[in-house]
Design brief:
Blueprint: H1 2-13, E1 23-24, E2 30-33, E3 36-40, H2 53-66, H3 74-78, H4 81-94, E4 98-102, H5 105-116, E5 121-126, H6 131-139, E6 143-147, H7 152-161, E7 166-172, H8 184-193, E8 198-201, E9 224-228, E10 238-242, H9 244-253, H10 255-258, H11 265-280, H12 283-301, E11 313-319, H13 321-333, E12 336-337, E13 340-341, E14 351-356, H14 363-376, H15 380-386
Parallel strand pairs: 3-12, 5-6, 5-7, 7-8, 8-9
Antiparallel strand pairs: 1-2, 2-3, 4-10, 9-10, 11-14, 13-14
Helix pairs in contact: 2-11, 4-11, 5-6, 12-14
């Protein structure tokens, strides 16, 4: 155990030690963190649906009907009519042959990639993919190559030089730490050119982008689409969409689906309501993007070093881990909660504040954030932290 203690102490020394904070109340912009009132800019409840009265009521009704837990794995007795209907409605909405619901995006990615690959396979993955995709590729027996972020020429090189191997391309659609969007059209065309299946993780795109809010890939047919319910839909879990053959294969072989207790049916019922609200309350997506534009304009006026992103993810690069921890603490002291993002979540030297905008925010909340930045920048310590 001494090694563990030494590793923990090293993390503290390097400002990489993470502490859980206690949030009280709903996922509103105004929250209490460890007893401190603050405006939160670090949640993924993009459309504000986690607090929607209809979603909450459906969850309550589902719990009354089915009980709290599912009680078993999907292949024993945990698969209920609630999950079945959710999968069918999602498949119909996505114009997909079938959909399979998992307990989380992490489980969906791990189970799917391990199920689809073998020792003779080659997985080609964007270097900035989410950790769940990276872990899945590492856990698999396949050869694993990470091409340079967004560099499709680099990807094309590996596709061309490994034509004899069974391959799989894996990419995020919206990259969770930088907030940039994959060149979906070019990536889809490249996968077709080399007859290589494409798996997309649309966790941060589903519910927000696309003509009907169905994600970055809404207008494109891809072999494997993953998206989560815990972000824009405000519930919990994830799904894989694809062909009949793909989904049936996952049911038979995906260990993260087979060997775990099934999703609580009340969650499935609440998610069905969130899906309906994507259509009936499309104003939420419109408001969200208006607020993103409002934030970008204000950040530019203040000369804040924010990465250019057209998504709700607005990363403010600080650099070193110690500085981002200091800045996050200073903001919390002034009523703003933005968590410090440090390695290994991001590359060394790119620690950041990952500012996220939601449809529940108002311009007044963003204005207050800018007011705090304006006040803090007068302090010498702030200038050293943010402007080196």
């Amino acid at each position: 155990m001494k090694r563990l203690a030494d590793e923990l102490e090293s993390k503290k020394t390097d400002y990489l030690y993470r502490k859980r904070v206690v949030r009280e109340g709903q996922q509103d912009p105004i929250i209490f963190i460890d007893g401190k009132k603050a405006i939160s800019f670090c949640g993924n409840n993009y459309l504000g649906l986690a607090n929607h009265p209809a979603v909450i009521q459906t969850f309550i009704d589902g719990a009354n009907k089915y009980g709290v837990g599912s009680g078993s794995s999907n292949l024993i007795s945990g698969y209920t009519s609630a999950q079945k209907i959710l999968e069918e409605e999602l498949a119909n909405k996505l114009n997909s042959e079938r959909v399979l619901v998992f307990n989380s995006g992490y489980f969906a990615n791990i189970g799917t990639i391990l199920s689809l690959t073998k020792k003779s396979s080659l997985v080609l993955a964007d270097k900035l993919n989410h950790a769940s995709l990276v872990d899945a590729c590492k856990y698999s027996e396949a050869k694993f190559i990470r091409y340079q972020h967004g560099d499709l020429k680099h990807l094309s090189h590996y596709l061309r030089s490994n034509q004899s191997l069974e391959k799989l391309i894996v990419s995020d659609t919206v990259f969770s730490m930088d907030g940039d969007i994959v060149d979906i059209e070019s990536l889809v065309n490249l996968s077709k050119k080399f007859s290589t299946p494409l798996m997309l993780d649309d966790a941060h795109g589903f519910g927000i982008f696309g003509p009907n809010g169905l994600g970055i890939a809404e207008k494109y047919k891809v072999e494997v689409q993953m998206a989560t319910f815990g972000k824009a839909l405000g519930t919990f879990g994830a799904f894989i969409a694809g062909s009949e053959t793909l989904i049936e294969h996952l049911i038979q072989t995906a260990r993260t689906y087979i060997y775990t207790t099934a999703m609580p049916p009340a969650i499935a019922e609440a998610t069905r309501t969130s899906l309906k609200l994507l259509d009936s309350e499309s104003w939420r997506r419109e408001k969200l993007m208006e607020l993103v534009a409002y934030f970008k304009k204000g950040a530019n006026a203040l000369d804040l070093p924010v990465i250019n992103s057209d998504t709700p993810i607005q990363p403010l690069i600080v650099g070193s881990a110690d500085k981002v921890v200091q800045l996050s603490s200073m903001l919390l002291d002034n009523g703003i909660h933005i968590a410090a993002i440090r390695p290994p979540s991001v590359p060394e030297g790119t620690s950041r504040l990952r500012i996220t905008i939601t449809a529940s925010h108002e311009t007044e909340h963003i204005d207050y954030l800018f007011d705090v930045f304006s006040t803090l920048r007068k302090a010498k310590i702030f200038k050293k932290i943010l402007y080196k």
